[in-house]
Task: inverse folding
């Protein structure tokens, strides 16, 4: 960056220098030419007056002069020239300044020498007796000037080059230094002493990005911690039934169990534990699918009421064994959703309502079609949830009463699945519960 700034400044300085040089040379040259012309004109007037007064005797008194003076008759013959013998000079009738002087009383012209290094300026004036007086002066052309001043100009150019190099180097350093000394780890700390107020929005954006990164990092750490905890919990939950199964299997294998009744009892325990394990594995698979945020789960127009009827039907035998009655209220309620995921919400909430109800309890599933939203409520009259646990029941493997949960075949993952499944549908969950009186779980889906 510094190199680029340096190059730009240096190029800009060089361009300004070159342009100024050309302009100043042009202006000076024009100025001097005009000065010389003015001088030539007034000198011509003076000589013309003197010649008109003294006649050709005037030339006898003429001393050293910078001007060439020529006196010409009306037919172009040279009467006098102060530099060349007039008798050898050709007729001057065709010269532009002479022609104009004869015609208009006064004429001017200029001609370059063959080398273009010199230019001759001419002024001619007609005298009262009809003759013409011509004065001329040699002027160095701009090329001649340049040629003469080549050496000093080269010196000036080198000095200018070196100065511009030095200036460009210093300027680029001064421009870049405040940027190099910025504390990018704490962007807003530079706010009060930065030389460039223009970069304040950039510093604010950088600060926002820092904060965003820190948040993302914290989130990632939290997620990784949750994953680790989940893996540890899941392994533990799977190990317990495995231990029980292998214990009973060992007993059966050893031949120590002699009665048919005991054998049946142990085989039943092995089956129950295997079912628990298989339910747990099923829940873990469901959760990991939902963890992806619903990617690859196509949504379709679904009737929430129909799904509620299906889920309740599937739980009928569980409800009967628990001596709980389950009813579904409401009518067709359409929403765009993933049918299987919606099913798992209703299934898990109803299963909990049955499992945490007392014998003879009633569970009511209500589906409401409201303006812009669909609402599902699962209410029971069961044991209720202590208010201090309400915030935690959606955590993985969190149970209010672990032994009760195990007794009813819970995995501790049901409400986590509900939370994720609702999240995929941008739905909100509300829980109202009173210890000993029952719980209401309400899920509100935007349509
Ligand atoms: P579990 O498989 O143990 O039921 P969940 O994640 O489904 O796991 O629920 C977490 C805990 O929340 C349960 O262990 C239970 O203590 C409590 N809970 C959930 N639903 C109800 C309910 N309807 N009534 C009382 N307690 C409930």
Result:
């Amino acid at each position: 960056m510094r190199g680029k700034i340096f190059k730009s400044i240096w190029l800009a300085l060089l361009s300004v220098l070159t342009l100024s040089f050309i302009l100043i040379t042009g202006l000076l040259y024009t100025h001097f030419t005009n000065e010389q012309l003015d001088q030539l004109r007034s000198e011509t007037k003076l000589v013309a007056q003197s010649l008109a007064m003294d006649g050709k005797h005037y030339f006898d008194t003429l001393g050293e002069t910078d001007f060439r003076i020529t006196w010409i008759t009306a037919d172009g013959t040279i009467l006098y020239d102060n530099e060349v013998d007039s008798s050898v000079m050709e007729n001057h009738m065709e010269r532009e300044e002479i022609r104009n002087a004869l015609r208009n009383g006064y004429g001017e012209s200029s001609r370059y020498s063959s080398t273009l290094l010199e230019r001759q300026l001419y002024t001619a004036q007609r005298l009262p007796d009809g003759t013409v007086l011509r004065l001329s002066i040699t002027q160095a052309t701009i090329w001649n000037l340049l040629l003469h001043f080549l050496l000093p100009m080269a010196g000036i150019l080198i000095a200018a080059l070196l100065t511009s190099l030095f200036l460009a180097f210093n300027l680029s350093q001064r421009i870049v230094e405040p940027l190099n000394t910025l504390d990018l780890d704490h962007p807003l700390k530079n706010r009060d002493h930065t030389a460039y107020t223009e970069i304040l929005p950039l510093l604010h954006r950088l600060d926002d990005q820092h904060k965003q990164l820190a948040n993302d990092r914290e989130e990632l750490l939290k997620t990784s911690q949750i994953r680790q905890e989940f893996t540890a919990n899941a392994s533990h939950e799977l190990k317990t039934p495995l231990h029980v199964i292998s214990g009973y299997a060992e007993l059966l294998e050893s031949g120590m169990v002699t009665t048919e009744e005991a054998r049946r009892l142990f085989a039943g325990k092995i089956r129950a534990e295997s079912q628990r394990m298989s339910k747990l594995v099923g829940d873990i698979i469901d959760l990991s699918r939902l963890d992806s945020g619903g990617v690859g789960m196509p949504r379709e127009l679904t009737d929430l009421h129909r799904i509620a009827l299906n889920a309740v039907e599937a739980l009928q035998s569980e409800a009967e064994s628990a001596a709980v009655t389950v009813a579904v209220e409401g009518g067709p309620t359409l929403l765009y959703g993933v049918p299987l995921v919606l099913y798992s919400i209703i299934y898990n909430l109803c299963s909990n309502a049955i499992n945490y109800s007392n014998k003879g309890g009633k569970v009511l599933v209500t589906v409401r079609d409201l303006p812009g939203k669909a609402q599902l409520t699962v209410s029971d009259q069961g044991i209720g949830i202590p208010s201090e646990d309400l915030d935690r029941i959606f955590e993985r493997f969190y149970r209010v009463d672990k032994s009760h949960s195990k007794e009813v075949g819970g995995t501790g993952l049901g409400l986590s699945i509900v939370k994720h499944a609702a999240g995929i549908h941008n739905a909100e969950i509300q829980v109202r519960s009173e210890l000993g009186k029952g719980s209401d779980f309400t899920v509100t889906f935007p349509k």
User: Anything to note?
Assistant: The two ends are 54 Å apart (CA to CA). The first strand starts at residue 68 and ends at 72.
